[in-house]
Amino acid sequence: MNSYTCTLCPRNCNAERYETEGRGFCGMGMLPKIARIAPHFWEEPCISGTMGSGTIFFSGCVLSCVFCQNYTISRQHHGRIMTEEELIEGVKSLEAQGVHNINLVSPTPYIETIIRCFTKYKPSIPVVYNTGGYEKAETIRRLEGIVDIYLPDMKYIRPDLSKKYSAAENYLEYALPAIKEMVRQTGKPVIDDEGIMQKGTVVRHLILPQNTKNSIAVLELLKEEFGDGILVSLMGQYIPMGRAEEHPEINRRITPREYSKVLDVYEGLGLDGFVQELSSAKKAYVPDFWDK
Ligand code: SF4
What we know:
Blueprint: E1 3-6, E2 15-18, E3 33-40, H1 45-48, E4 53-58, H2 71-74, E5 80-81, H3 84-96, E6 102-105, H4 111-120, E7 127-131, H5 137-141, E8 149-152, H6 159-166, H7 171-186, E9 190-191, E10 197-206, H8 212-226, E11 231-235, H9 256-268, E12 273-275
Parallel strand pairs: 4-6, 6-7, 7-8, 8-10, 10-11, 11-12
Antiparallel strand pairs: 1-2, 3-4, 3-5, 9-10
Helix pairs in contact: 3-4, 8-9
This protein binds iron/sulfur cluster.
């Protein structure tokens, strides 16, 4: 196949994608472009454990978040184009390093490749699908049997915010059904005796400055829709990066008051999961990506 017309994600670009280049919103070709393959220690404790999560950072993204920490790969497309065989070798090399899982970060544009690779080679450790949440439920359905753990964001409840900060006015319209499909596939979280997740869905939410109402509404929605069927990871480590300086209201870290306001609601709702401390807001946690 030399090209195909892509409608994999909610952008529904109907754009041609060739082997190494694409004309859709994500700008990516069919072959995976990868910016880092390495153990990663800064995910949730049940994902990173002691040996690390075997992360594969994909280049290109279907969202366009102005505050993206991984801007060089999400929008500037740093990374190396790899063949499917090279991707499989990368998975095997992570397994050989003793990591707890294979963590596919921002994989949406490459779902076709991922299905082919993981059908050819299924690792002996869980496969994690780590996404911004802007997904089509019907595309996620195709990953049943391949993915063991979903790690989606639920960023926004308000369309004006998702439009302004991520160029995706219909974010919630897609993210909620997609997460429902993820939870249908995984069932309730399963964590082994060593505290390592084997199956389930962890929904992340990053608190943005001056947007605590959005965060509270997201937490209430997650409780109402999923109850104890998911874990919720509340992230307080926002640092203004990418193009955040174009939006003065989010061009700062969150304050202790904003953080505790959202944390109070998290605890009051009895959500189960993980809470990131404010002190974890450090640029040092952004990994080094390959230039090419
Ligand atoms: S994966 Fe890329 S090309 Fe395909 S629909 Fe989404 S943004 Fe468009």
